Amino acid sequence: MQFASFDLGDPAFDAHGFTFSLQVVTRENVCGIDPARTSARMEDGVFVVRAAGLTTAGGQAPAPGAAILRVTPGRPGQVRVQAKAKAAQRVRCVKILVRGLAAPLALVDDGGERGVSPAGEILAYPNRIATPLLFVRSGEDLLGIRVEDERVREKRFALAVERLGPRTGQGVVECIFDEDASRLSHEIEAPPLVIARGADRAAFTAEHLRFLEVRGGLVPWRERSDVPRWARDLRLALTLHGMHWTGRIFLDYAGMLDAIRFVAGRIDGRHVLAYLPGWEGRYYWQYGDYRPEERLGGEAGFAALCEGARRLGVHVMPMFGGNCVNAWLPRFASLDASAYMKSATGNRFHGNQPDWDFARAHDTGWQAWLNPGHPGWRDDLATQIETLAARFGFDGVFLDTVHVFVNDPDHSVVDGLRALCLRLHRAIPNVLLAAEHDFDALLPLFGLFQRAYWGADPAWTAPYAMRFAHLCEAEPEGRTGVHEFGVWRSSGAAPAGEARAGYLPTIAFQDDTLARSRAEVERVIAAAARG
Q1: Which fold has domain 13-215?
Q2: How far apart are alpha carbons 96 and 81 in whole angstroms?
């Protein structure tokens, strides 16, 4: 986190047991409210701050604009905070600061309690937290903080200790509400912020989930109409690694089918999902241009794989990049610049940068991260998937990295994903849509998720989705196949082959996995067969 070298001088207001300040961030500057043109009073039990002007430069210069802050009491110890603002420039975000907190601060989540870094810490929704809900320990008090937004807009929660001014040494939580960059204007209205002292985590979380179910479309997994009936019978997932980025083949199509036959000889095939990363050729390098790879067996080999699996009752799920392509491929020679994912101010997003070529430079300039909200790119991807599904008959589709969110001024990422999912459901009968990682707005769109061991599943998501192991996991010796990690050993993660509620035991295959780890493979299959 960065801080000013001077006190910004924001006026603070005590309301219903909390202390608040307000800032307005335009595309050009950060503004505070002008104390000389601000009133604060109770209006029918609601504490209302009305600012008829703004300031910049820590109060040195006046700025045109206005703001309103309302603090409404709710349950004991709980308030509902709402803010509106307008400015001469387009407004990017509004910030509500919760001040006067006992320091140091600590974050409390499913994994326990951990102190906030002395340098400060930022939690961003949806890229770091799966829903705008968090719990903060301040001295002996537990604060619950959540946001009720009917739209998917970025929120950031910055936790720090104040460094300058009369509140030096006190804790502060900045609750920052971004406007959708495609709708930026001179005015902004933040969604309601709910804050509770002495919060009961279970009760406060349940309140938030009720909001998500009513307004966000969350439905328990067993009641979901978009999950095909066959998916409810799954007991085991297989990750069948195809071709590495370097072109090294782990399993060709015949090898994948051999692995499927081995498994289906020990468990009813209808209980098995075969997930295929690197099936289209060089992993990631081929992203965006999907077709069977000649070196893996070509169209005939892929057709034989899909047909052979189908005869055994096994469900095949190829992997597709949901927002990432190789821009050096011929089909992207004239790529529309507005298709690229970008920030609210136009910085092009470049996502992960694996060291695929081992140059130790992490230089992946050939990768382009595209917004599924862009109609042309979305149509291109959907058409490729639909054409392949119609030709080869697979009945699952995995979309990689679709959890990546940017506040793109050209297209809404989530609206684009929603349109893509609706189209695939219409085009492919009884399709199971799966994705990497998740946040609250993706849970209604995908019925199956993988989340790597270093990002624990939020407990509240359990009723709404089924999970299986990340593609970098589940190989008995810890080898990650097409994934860039090489070899891993997770610390404290649940074994990928173990059954637990809401999770499909998973076993991953490289070319020699069965020969090297047959006993472990047999054990996982047998456990899955027992249900």
Answers
A1: Beta-galactosidase; Chain A, domain 5 (2.70.98)
A2: 9
